[in-house]
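=== Given protein ===
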Amino acid sequence: MAFHRRRNHYHNRFRSILPVICTISGALLILFALLSFLAPTPIASNNPQHMNSLYARNGVVEDTIGESVLHIPKKGRTDRDIWSSRNSKYYYGCSNASIKFANSDAVTQPNRYLLIVTSGGLNQQRTGITDAVVAARILNATLVVPRLDQKSFWKDSSDFSEIFDVDWYISSLSKDVKIIKSLPKRGGKTWIPRSMRVPRKCSERCYQNRILPVLLKRHAIQLTKFDYRVANRLDTQLQKLRCRVNYHALKFTDSILQMGGKLVHRMRMKSKHFIALHLRFEPDMLAFSGCYYGGGDKERKELGAIRKRWKTLHVSNPDKERRHGKCPLTPREVGLMLRALGYSNDVHIYVASGEVYGGEETLAPLKALFPNFYTKETLASKEELEPFSSFSSRMAALDFIVCDESDVFVTNNNGNMARILAGRRRYFGHKPTIRPNAKKLYRLFLNQTTMSWEAFTSKMRTYQRGFMGEPKEVRPGRGEFHENPHTCICEDSEAKAKKDSGPRKYGKGYDAVGDDVLGEDEPELSDPGDDGYQNGPQEKDQFNGTGMDYDGITNEEPELEEILSD
């Protein structure tokens, strides 16, 4: 009986305090719910791009992230020449044909005509135009001047002669390949060629086995979507032919050259040296990359809606993409990289870009780091740009000229323009070309709040060795040939031997960015079609902000095999 009385006693006490426990629990749940609603997401609060600002104080730019402040000195590096490559004078472009390379008159067969239709934006089309000459030489065929892509997303109606000097193209290559402006009529009637597509990276044997039999039967064939349709590795003489086309035969029209020259001259009038930045930060490109930049739910919603354009695009892990170096640097990160490499805030910078996601708010940190900020629209009047502004490829050509003529070329991406210019600048004297070591820089930017500016710059210069456009940064045969034209770069061995035998100019502790060292951080050049960037929709043809630079895009869904091209 006593046991039952005690049990009833405790039961009654529990029943009496139960409402109090429920009230307290409910209040705690409501409090946690309010805190969860008001607090930022874990990703946004931890992301280096979020809650970030740059401002100047007493001549020093301060980069604030949360409570941490990174003090960035106004002056740049003075212990070395940051405007040239150290050993560039010992290397030069060499693409002349061997005496064993037969004249076109001797090898071109009658009744063999090759037509090609390029694909993509200006720089992707440039690869097709270059490789078309090589394909015609392999097939011993007469090449008809390539037809440019006029049906893709941006609908540029320009033909070959409105962008390139067609007469120079034909005459300068006359000893290599016979080129004509149009297909001759057959029996007084228009000749309709057989249309077909070549596999990507088609070798000499591939062309001889797959294309030549059809050409012998039909006498005229048209190869469509012609971009990266010739193998990277070819006979040495064919590789040199590639270089003759790309670096010598392809000249812009006089009107484009003159306007591009004016832009370069105006940059030179402002400063002895200038940097050109190819900035890829368009909404479409960011959406495809699957990367996250700290914009919260608004960013996820906007970019997520764009991603739906590609129905077969898999869901990606933003952190994984960034760790693997697949995310383009933000404008702020590019600015910090350049300042850490020694470029002071009085350096003049030309920016080639399209619609930047986030607009002026996204560009503000870069402009705070480099106030002397220019674009073709700020350097030229609307009247001057009017003949070009309605044509994305012509606008792209203007940016191409300025970037090519710049003292230092910088890119935050690995698109076609970045690759084409990297190869071109190697060929013409190894002019400094800075490409981010994205894998290493990811960790550096993530941890920048834990270090001083001096420590940050030291690590930046270490990580960027091998990514500065110096000679021999990349092993021969690595990457796509237009990016690494190793066959067409020769070394002045005698001059270099004299230099190597002389006294060392720099001591053991010299911190040189871009020494001739092939280490574990050699740039990972990728072949189009093999990496995550190239297997998707094309990058924006950013030069007039009118749309994506898609290869073969219809009005419906962009193709997944091409992204991030120009």
